[in-house]
Here is the input.
Amino acid sequence: MVILIGLATFLSTLLGGLFAIRFKDRLHLILGFSAGAVIGVALFDLIPESISLGTKAYNLSEVTLLIAIGFAVYMTLDRFFSLHLHAKRGEDCCEKENHRGKLAAGSLLFHSFLDGLGIGLAFKISPTVGWIVAAAVLAHDFSDGINTVNVILKNSGSRGQAFRWLLADAIAPVVGVGVTFLFTVPSPVLGLILAIFAGFFLYIGASELIPESHHRHPSRWTTISTILGIGVLYLITFLVK
Here is the structure.
């Protein structure tokens, strides 16, 4: 049953990414929604879960400090190793933009791996907890697929590159589920990992996707799309908990 749920996360992620590729002309609206979804995942899923798991062995201040560290680390990597290297216009600039997209997609991919890890570990706790976690992961994996495609396309990546990253992101939760059959990660440690990735996602949503969506098509609809993304993720997490 756990393996079947892992395969369902593959399909959910893949469908989200194909949606983003198919409707590229509406990318500003998709980017706006994705920004809200990424921020929503951080605020309503990753942060609460990191606090719930992490505070079993660590202070609340230690867990929240890791959220800030995650934000700062991702910002540092983004500014010093990608777009902000003051590259020349043309092919070199596009190459560095593409590197930035890969950095963001890699972060999303590892998050998807943790999704699968969370499903497998939750079922080891109890079937009830497992189904709740699985429902939450399936609900936002569609957005994960959209986000993976978007961060590649908006940073000068090709559709082929976007699709390859999408496949990797769709496979990641299946791998995560499989890994749980090999060993067990202590829940407080998993909480700390989630805290770091919450910081990553807050930076990606607030500092990349929101400005990019508004830059492509500055209108009230991009803002509405972002608010809608936040609202959808809140509703999802509210319904499955």
